[in-house]
Specification:
7 helices; Alpha-Beta Plaits; alpha+beta
Length: 295
């Protein structure tokens, strides 16, 4: 598998937070619409058996990667400065390779600060072009992203980088996430190029949420969250909800028994939909080798 990096310039506000596993799902929908269900089914063969055709990262601050999720005793940070340390969430690849976690920087320094805004709307009766009996405005929370980068790991024997690039562009043209039909979630792919990330070693960091169940790592450091996934497009009605999936948050650190080349980790998740049994969820994450974490 080869790693590629896409430089993304947002074209509108977003409603749904950009995450690698969610973007993977939207790209699958784009493949189904552009190339047909049979093409998507063929690409997803073996997906839950450690054979993904594509793994997508979270959005990254340009030129930076996430700070690994490690306790202060292992990262070397001052435990008395927890509040400040939590704000330092990005690292350069050089600092990460050295394991110098004291060089982590804030989102402001990395110039990647997604801004939350509240836009005010009012329901309109499209038969009368009027509001209801009263003036009843409501707020919609929006996210304004600055330009960012996304890493994509592709099995080039099954899917071409050109197809991946075009599919990502199709998602950007149609819109990502909630309210895409009203212009939200639009973005442009201004460049798409091969990237090199260190993927050989014993200790690794995940660049997207992942499922750690069944992982052969001997030790894992991570924060958890529950992904309450929903079907989109034609399957969004009447009940869009999938089964919840417990995941490790981006930045999880995995330690393995011995050195090896591991461009990704985690597992593909199936059995999460009663509406469409073949549905899968990206429980994989692109991994970056980091220096051995010493206790």
């Amino acid at each position: 598998m080869k790693c590629y990096k896409a430089h993304i310039v947002p074209g509108s506000a977003f409603i749904t937070v950009m995450k690698g596993d969610t973007l993977f799902g939207q790209m699958c929908w784009a493949i189904a619409y552009r190339d047909g269900d049979m093409v998507l089914r063929a690409l997803l063969e073996g997906y839950t058996e450690n054979s993904p055709f594509l793994v997508v990262s979270d959005p990254m601050a340009p030129g930076f990667l996430p700070k690994p999720t490690l306790p202060a005793v292992l990262s070397g940070e001052d435990p008395e400065l927890k509040k400040l340390n939590r704000k330092k969430i990005w690292m350069s690849l050089d600092a990460l390779r050295r394991g110098d976690y004291l060089e982590a920087v804030t989102a402001k320094t990395a110039k990647f600060e997604p801004r939350e805004e509240l836009s005010v709307h009012n329901a309109v009766n499209y038969k009368t072009s009027r509001t209801g009996d009263g003036f009843d405005p409501f707020g919609v929370e929006e996210i304004r992203y600055t330009p960012f980068e996304i890493y994509l790991l592709i099995d080039e024997e099954r899917w071409s980088p050109e197809s991946c690039r075009d599919t990502l562009r199709a998602v950007g043209e149609a819109g990502y996430g909630k309210k895409a039909t009203t212009g939200r979630g639009r973005f442009d792919v201004v460049s798409f190029e091969e990237a090199e990330l260190p993927c050989e070693g014993r200790d690794f960091m995940a660049l997207a949420p992942m499922v750690v169940e069944g992982c052969d790592a001997v030790e894992i450091f991570y924060d958890t969250f529950v992904r309450f996934g929903k079907h989109g497009a034609d399957d969004a009605r009447p009940n869009p909800f999938k089964k919840p999936v417990l995941m490790a948050q981006t930045g999880a650190v995995l330690r393995f028994e011995s050195d090896a080349k591991r461009p990704f980790a985690g597992k593909g998740v199936g059995g999460i939909s009663s509406k469409r049994p073949e549905t899968v969820h990206q429980g994989y994450a692109i991994t970056v080798a980091i220096p051995e974490v010493r206790k």
